[in-house]
Amino acid sequence: MAIKLSFVIFCHSMKVISSGLIEDEEEEALEVDFANKYLGGGALSRGCVQEEIRFMINPELIVGMLFMASMEDNEAIEIVGAERFSQYMGYGSSFRFVGDYLDTKPLDAMGRRKTRIVAIDALDCPTKLQYETSGLLREVNKAFVGFLDQSKHQFDVKPFQDSNSKDNHPSVNSVDCVGVSTGNWGCGAFGGNPEIKSMIQWLGASQAHRPFVNYYTFEDASLRRLEEVIQWVLRHGWTVGELWHMIVEYSSQRLKRETFDGFLTWLLPEDSANNDVDYMCE
User: Fold this and answer.
1) pLDDT digits 0-9 by tens, 112-142
2) Residues carrying an active site annotation
3) Please, are residues 131 and 256 in contact by the beta-carbon 8 Å criterion?
4) Which residue intervals define the domain PARG catalytic Macro in the entry (predicted)?
5) What is the DSSP string of 195-228?
6) Are strands 96-100 and 29-35 parallel, antiparallel or unpaired?
7) 3-281 domain in CATH 3.40.220.10?
């Protein structure tokens, strides 16, 4: 992806959601699996974080562990139609099954649930690498590959078809209206920076021309200014390439220990709060 030269405008609908879960997403969206490069991670052993939990409540996903090789840096895995069977509570050691779940998502023409799960693996314990250009490029390319609508680039693969379509042709709305439902990808057990990862996923989704992003922060305190940054970037009409350059500049300063601010604070001007008030009054 030629992100350095990208003039793509950001998708304008990036909703910041402090509570809730990706698997409960009500809109049609790619639901991101914060994956291990080996699909499923520790689902069949001791793992019990985001990916493993998804494989427990949508057990059909486990089949993929038998057939999928480890993902390369330019690969993602999209899984269509996995049905959810379980409700749960907790996370990690507190994870518990609490009852059956009735999946009511509509079906496509092939009888599959209209559930799209995309597995993308982040850098594991990246420390300094996540601020180096090579690490940033790796992550933004991984997000872009995961969010790209592959059906538009493959002549022998049909996208989701609307089960109500009379002519059995793919419904335009069924594909073009599909957004991204994600959160703090690679930031838990993998140790990534939530502020950088949120921006990288916004870059990837916008470059892939996804119409919206629903971003679940899971009440992460470091993302308290995320909505403010989104509105500031949109208001100033930045392109994907322009924000990318700012991420690279910030990361360079972090490596040189020239700044210790989080990216969101670093990006916003000190008087941004006053500017927002002025903007709202215009």
Assistant:
1) 999 999 999 999 999 999 999 999 999 999 9
2) 33, 51-52
3) no
4) 13-224
5) HHHHHHHHHHHHHTT-SEEEEE-TT-GGGTTHHH
6) unpaired
7) yes
